[in-house]
Amino acid sequence: MTKQITITIGQGVDRDGKSLSYRLPDLKREALVLTAKVLGGYTATESRGGWIDPRGNLIEENSLVITSIVPEESVNAVKTLAKLLGEIFNQEQVMVVVSTVESEFIEIIPDSKVA
After folding, report:
1. What are residue 85's phi and psi, to 5 degrees?
2. Which of 20, 45, 59, 115 has the most crowded CB, counting CB atoms within 10 A?
3. With a threshold of 0.70, does the pTM exceed it?
4. What is the pLDDT of residues 77-95, one digit of tens each?
5. H or E segment at 24?
6. Which long-range contacts (CB under 8 A, 24 or more apart) does 36-40 make?
């Protein structure tokens, strides 16, 4: 059985309230190289999300959403990866969603006719 994993990492500020913008390209590169090494591949999407801070203020920030398909036995490695990605971005938390999916790669044969 395969699992689709989605890891979402905030890219606005770090756990100390410091902006990540000036070093964001390097952080993303490090995170995506690590993800590719651990999971074998990924799809990365830039998104925007929001949350309520302890004072009740809406905080909106850009996010990096990393999605991959992994074998069921890799879920523990995904959780370890999520912690490492959180450390790269100096975050308090990252969100991990694990879903059971059916997936397959469809081979594309050049010059094949679609019926």
Report:
1. -65, -40
2. 20
3. yes
4. 999 999 999 999 999 999 9
5. helix 24-39
6. 38/77, 38/78, 38/81, 39/5, 39/68, 39/70, 39/74, 39/77, 39/78, 39/81, 40/68, 40/70
Tell me which CATH code domain 2-101 carries. 3.30.70.120
Extended beta strands in 1-115, E state: 2-10, 43-52, 58-71, 95-101
Identify the residue whose tokens are 């009740």: 56
Helices then strands (H, E): number in the chain? 2, 4
Q: Which residue has the tokens 């890219």?
A: 11
The tokens describing 29, both together, are 């590169």
Rounded Cα distance between 34 and 55, Å, is 35
